[in-house]
Design a protein that fits this description.
alpha/beta; Rossmann fold; two-stranded parallel ribbon; 9 strands; 14% strand; NAD(P)-bd_dom_sf; Epimerase_deHydtase; NAD(P)-dependent oxidoreductase
Length: 292
Amino acid sequence: MRVFFTGGAGKAGRHAIPHLVEQGHRVTNIDLVKLNHPNVPDLRVDLTDGHQVFNAMASPASGAELDEPPAPYDAVVHFAAIPSMFLTADSETYRVNVLSTFNILDAATKLGIRKIIIASSETTYGVCFAQGEIRPDYIPVDEEHPTVPQDSYAMSKVCNEATARSFQARTGFDIYALRINNVIEPHEYLGHAKAWRETPEVRRRNIFAYIDARDLGHMVDRCLRTDGLGYQVFNVSNDDSSVGMPSAEVIDRFYKGVPLKRPLGEHETFYSNAKAKRLLNYAPSHGWRDLP
């Protein structure tokens, strides 16, 4: 597929795009920063400007494409965003994330691009950036869990999901929102492993879960290859938790009294990825426990 990928130079995108290229997709990176991948054109686009978004999505991405018949994009993957709290003013985080997502969805649907994937977030469940401690309503957390966050970043993601659902209702296209857990790059494991084993409380706000950046690329590919699901929201995580202690001990220490929807395996994630496995054949294969 020919893929219009926003935010490809970011922490998630710089792993996802090479994986998509390896799987045979033709990808254009849309970002304010270059990815500098030899087989991926870079286009600098301000996504809060709807004119720029529409123009870039409707135009050739490089000179090499001028020697071929014009080819529209088959899919849009929208990962670009202000990626966290505490990076700029709350109002700016909300403005950029909401407006850019509207512009992407608006342009893609008007251009007839029938597969759109947007990055949502674990923060929508209201745990990560809450003032004080908020525990999930139940565990493991699945896509049916309420999304009532307190912070502008997560609010922007909840708003984006509602916007995506509205565009899907109008068009009938496939629009999938990925509630991505804490993205960890392979080189980061060595720095994290000691804390994850010895101080599990540092993972509380991430619901004791994570997603390996390489498996996130696999998740995007599975979304591109799976048609006909309409509007869907998917949790994205690895199969195991991000702490050394067994799940039963995590529950006893951090989640005592929180309803348990089903029994958990010894080190099973508290951030359920069962829906992605069932509908997309998602199969994560990396993890921090691979370390010696």
